[in-house]
Write a structure and sequence with these properties.
Length: 148
């Protein structure tokens, strides 16, 4: 069993036990394929999306942004970032003003200049949904990095 995401999985499993939900019940309530959820909880796949994590938070009565500080491990595999997971994660963090989750990720992303494109993609997505204040921060990071 891979141990990278154990804390996230443990939190979800603890909530399942606390609420008396089976895996199938949680999957149905959250709109997640039961097989995918099982594989994710058993460490066999990185298949929980940020939207699915939000759905899990809702069924467990948790606030939006629940476990976001642990979710970042879902966005990495062998020290490589998953754009497919990271961009929606950063967008959602911006929507919820979770700068405590955004800033450490940006710091790590800037270790590699190629990753500026991820930050720009987040800014663009926020801009397109008229979240201008949130987009501005990401655009500023891109500008500062380009000038640095």
């Amino acid at each position: 069993m891979r141990g990278v995401n154990r804390p996230l999985r443990w939190e979800i499993e603890d909530q399942m036990k606390l609420h008396g939900y089976s895996l199938n019940q949680v999957a149905e309530l959250a709109g997640i394929n039961a097989g995918n959820l099982s594989r994710a909880l058993n460490g066999l796949a990185r298949s929980i999306t940020i939207g699915q994590l939000d759905a899990l938070a809702q069924i467990f009565g948790k606030a939006p942004g629940w476990l976001y500080e642990l979710y970042i491990e879902e966005c990495m595999s062998e020290e490589k970032w998953s754009r497919r997971r990271l961009i929606p994660y950063l967008v959602r963090c911006a929507e919820l003003d979770r700068h405590d989750c955004i800033e450490p990720v940006i710091f790590k992303l800037l270790d590699n200049p190629k990753n500026v494109s991820i930050i720009f993609a987040v800014a663009e997505q926020l801009f397109q949904t008229e979240r201008l204040r949130e987009a501005e921060h990401f655009y500023q990071v891109v500008i500062d990095e380009d000038q640095g």
